[in-house]
Amino acid sequence: MNPHVVIVGAGAVGGFVGGLLAEAGSNVTLVDAWPAHVEAIRARGLKLDGMDGERHVALSALHVCDVQTLIHRRVDVAFVSVKLYDTRWATALIAPYLSESGFVVTMQNGLVEENVAQVVGWPRVIGCVVSRFQVELVEPGHIRRTNPPGGTLHDTFRVGEIHGRPTRRAERVAALLQNVDTARVTTNLWGERWSKLVANSMTSPVAAISGLTLKEMYEQSQARRLVIRLAAEAVGLGHALGFALEPIFGTSPDDYVAAERGERSSLLRLEAAMATWQATSLEGGRTGIAQDLRKGRRTEVDYLGGYVAARAAATGHRAPTHEAITQIVHRMERNELKPGMDNVEALLSAGRTAG
Question: Residues 6 or more apart from 264 whose CB is under 8 A from it?
């Protein structure tokens, strides 16, 4: 059987995944809210380039206003890959067109499964954690990947059921995604989710407020220091909340906490890991928050660092650096502040003063 796969949100991640699935022979339909992007795909196909070479893939693409035509082609697997603040309406958009056994896969950052379940019910939700998948929507119909595939180093996609048990449908989703990059089924979805939240909240806002690309961020000692501080706060909170954390960028979560406390051996391991990440990234790769700021759009910071800060406050803990960096990003959204390394230094100085 060749299930009908619909990608709701054909931006950088969703579009790249959908393009490679279609190239591998899957029955794929892209749905996106950017008219120029949809029209470009319809006219010329989807251009994918970067670390995997260049290719052009012909596939079906729908405007949001055309989704009702799916009544004739029920959806077996719906990947939701929109901005986190758009999750609920995007799920509601595709829900009426799910087949009898159809389900939704949350191919996003953050902890969004509950938002999806409120629309389609928990039995129709599968989580998919995506790591080290640096992609950018360069222009309508053109997506670029700026880091290499996982290979034997890491699993880019981890697919998991809410209840944590392996199932045939989770295995089928992982098998599909192996056409894109390395993929496996996880029995620790929530631990994977929080670990990815740590990774996102420690890198995406730092690159954004500094104005650095990902490659440049790893080259800057002050930026690396702030990355470690943010990670330590989020890891400590994750442990306090009871999550079984997974390695973060291939490194033990405890190394970030120990490095922030001044343990030299942990710091050296992290510095070595960051040097590897820097060496294997293309020039010009920017994080999601940085891309949104450059395009004058709302960012997802409230669902990343802002989420960490909110969970900390709600449970009697503290994440002051996440709270502060979230406010800086909001000031940039309002054009009250410009990117620069002075923002990084201000956060580091505030932390030293507090300490």
Answer: none
CA nearest neighbour of 104 among 32, 7, 195: 7
In the block, tokens 């502040």 appear at 337
Burial of 353 (0-12, 13-18, 19+ CB in 10 A): exposed
Q: Is 319 helix (H, G, I), strand (E, B) or coil?
A: coil
**Residues β-bridged to residue 105:** 79, 126
Going 33 to 34 to 39 to 45, the CA torsion angle's sign is negative
Q: What is the value of pTM for the model shown?
A: 0.89
Question: pLDDT (tens digit, 0 to 9) for every residue of the chain, 355 residues total?
Answer: 799 999 999 999 999 999 999 999 999 999 999 999 999 999 999 999 987 789 999 999 999 999 999 999 999 999 999 999 999 999 999 999 999 999 999 999 999 999 999 999 999 999 999 988 889 999 999 999 988 888 767 789 999 999 999 999 999 999 999 999 999 999 999 999 999 999 999 999 999 999 998 889 988 999 999 999 999 999 999 999 999 999 998 899 999 999 999 999 999 999 988 888 777 666 667 888 998 999 899 999 999 999 999 999 999 999 999 999 999 999 999 999 999 999 999 999 986 655 5
Give the separation between CA 51 and CA 146, rounded to whole angstroms: 6
Closest CA to 96 of 126, 117, 75: 75
Residue 75: which of 91, 55, 88, 89 has the closest Cα?
91
- Determine the Cα–Cα distance for residues 110 and 103; give it in Å rounded to an integer: 19
Q: In what order do the strands lie in the sheet with 142-145?
A: 55-57, 46-50, 142-145, 135-139
SS3 (DSSP) at 24: coil
Q: Which residues pair with 333 in a beta bridge?
A: none
Question: Distances from the Cα of 13 to the Cαs of 30, 91, 191, 221, in angstroms?
Answer: 12, 17, 22, 29
Quick check: 61 and 165 in contact, CB under 8 A? no
CA angle in degrees (0–180, nearest 5) for 102-155-270 = 140
β-bridge pairing 75-80 and 4-8: parallel
d(CA 309, CA 325): 10
